[in-house]
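Troubleshooting log. The previous run stalled partway through. Resubmitting the same two chains, unchanged.
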Amino acid sequence: MKFKLLRIDLTRMTSKVDELGDDVIRKYIGGRGLGAYLALKEIPKGADPFGPENKVYILTGPLVGTASVESGRYHVVAKSPLTGILGDANSGGQFGPWLRFAGYDGVVLEGKSEDPVWISITNGEVKFHDAKKMWGKGVIHTEKMIRDEVGIHDESIGSILSVGPAAENLSRIAAVMNDKYRAAGRAGLASVIASKGVKAIWAYGNRKPTEELYDRKGFFDEAKKVIEKIKNHDISKALHQFGTAVLVNIINEHGAFPTRNWQQGTFDKAYEISGEKLADTYLKARKGCWGCVILCSRVSEVEEGPFITPLSEGPEYETIWANGGTTMISELAALVKANYLMNDMGFDTISFGSTVAALMELYERALKGELPEEKAKELIELAGDVNPVFGNPHALIQLIWMAAYRNRIGDYVAEGAMRLAEYFGYPEAAIHVRGMELPAYDPRGINSMALSYATSNRGGCHLRAYAVSFDVLGVPKKFDPLVVDYEKVELVKMQQDYFAFIDSVIVCKFNTFSTGPEDYIGLMKTAMGWEDYSVEELMTTGERIYNVERLFAVREGHGYQDTLPKRLMETPLPDGPAKGKTTKEAIEKYLPEYYRIRGWSDGKPLPETLDKLGLQEFKYILS
Amino acid sequence: MYIKVRYFGLVYSVTGIYEEEILIEDGYTISRLIKDIVDRFEDLSRLLFLEDGSLNPLYRITVNGRDIEHLDGLETRLSGGDVVALIGPAGG
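Second attempt completed without errors. Output:
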């Protein structure tokens, strides 16, 4: 199976197709892995994330759109304006499969258009369309305009990837959106797309990826086995029933629910914003991505009151936490509305809520006289009547608009927490790794997450290694989240490598609760014709991808130092079962062992590690 | 003396209540609590226990936020004011 890569030159308004063979695909698979490899080869060191020299890789993988193995996904890779190193983000919905059906396994956006365009990809044909009328419009309106133009209003046919006003105004926390409510949210990559003048991509066609499989019948036999495992697993059933928001109560109970901008580990109103509460109030339906058997997505509606919100997808656990727990906003209806608006404006809901929480802390400190006098005065003036105090849902909602259009204090929120906090003279208020805001698990209460966060290549992220699974949920086995245990280091590395494969092939990470690497061997053999494919090769591929991502940071000369924010390292949690805990001990003990098993030194791969992984072409970066 | 018991996720689907207070006596254990709760909510039995009678490892029980696996397991003794959570499977 050849990987059909469509390269679109926005400067010249031309396109061409590269066909990648096994020499590249067997080493990097697709999605995140292929994106990392191509980015390291093609994006020059020191590139301006918003410059024409940056490239955006929108990639599927060989399993995308093939069968119900939760393969309705795609991955976006580019140099991130938020972190200044390699950024990547993953999304579900319908776009990944439809891109393949349209004729291509991936798209690369290169150069820069002078005027806004949207691109249609229909049965292999690429057309550029004027997007001036769409510029400034929200994601939902944009999708409607495109469907009006192509004349297909059935939302199960064809798919649209787009960016919102947040990206147009180059917010560093803007999310790539598709199918209205799905987001490749992290690392601000939507603004890179917008910087190239691209508002949207329409994908539609009749290509059948299953007809390109090496052994179609064998593949479906293998897929059926995997589907059964996923469908019958208790975690899949729980995700269907309550969605990811079921974690609100659980993580809060464990004292690892970051509250008041990471100044507490528990929120006394957690139940009010929980998945259970959502199911009892605003939940109207459950929905899945293309070919999904789990259906974890929520479809919610607030029918009346100040936070009235039309029927729309979400909110997820991370969104509820970032905009609820850490901001101490306990009105669930407000979070449903905020989620809807963030999707429409095209914001990463994790980074946005986290930045608002940082703003709330800064504002509180400004009022108490704990910021430099001039900065405090400026902040209070810029905030005006927004009143960004903990627990204020109206401030959260107002800030979505203000940040999307860079109005007053919104101009600073659009930059993300790190830049906001640095500007106002109190960097400690930004809880981030490599410039990207951390997600919804306090590593002081779940110590494996300390290592997972610190070594996450793309910055603050729970999806490089989801150590919550073994520290809290007991999958594959239970560890004590408060006790340092070196076995966890091996598990974190294993997950990082395995997940790199999962993001490359591409299937949903929720598969990993019920399936292991061994479940994908048969699929890869029958899809690709790699008769000798093995678990060892799969894991080595994941490790290779993880090292390529790290090399991007090493080449940039920053972003490879593995540590955590000062607050998490030095300030003990004041409450809950993890009271008194910091991450200092975990980081100091875990990191040397992690580097030993990775074959790294001080965050950099050793030359012999690159030899082992077949990465000799990148050894120049270490010299 | 009273303890608080919370029900999360699929456990909540069966109990229909998020939190309740239960009167306990000295020496009351998690094992006893589970028995008492299953007596009231019979459908919990098929969720919490595997066919061999052992606890389904995807269902977790905490006392004051600490998983009973890191305490004394089912023999963990409860005291007045303790908060117990019966937690269904989850992912995110």
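Takeaways: Residues 2-87 of chain B form a domain with the Ubiquitin-like (UB roll) fold (CATH 3.10.20.30). Chain B has one domain: 2-87.
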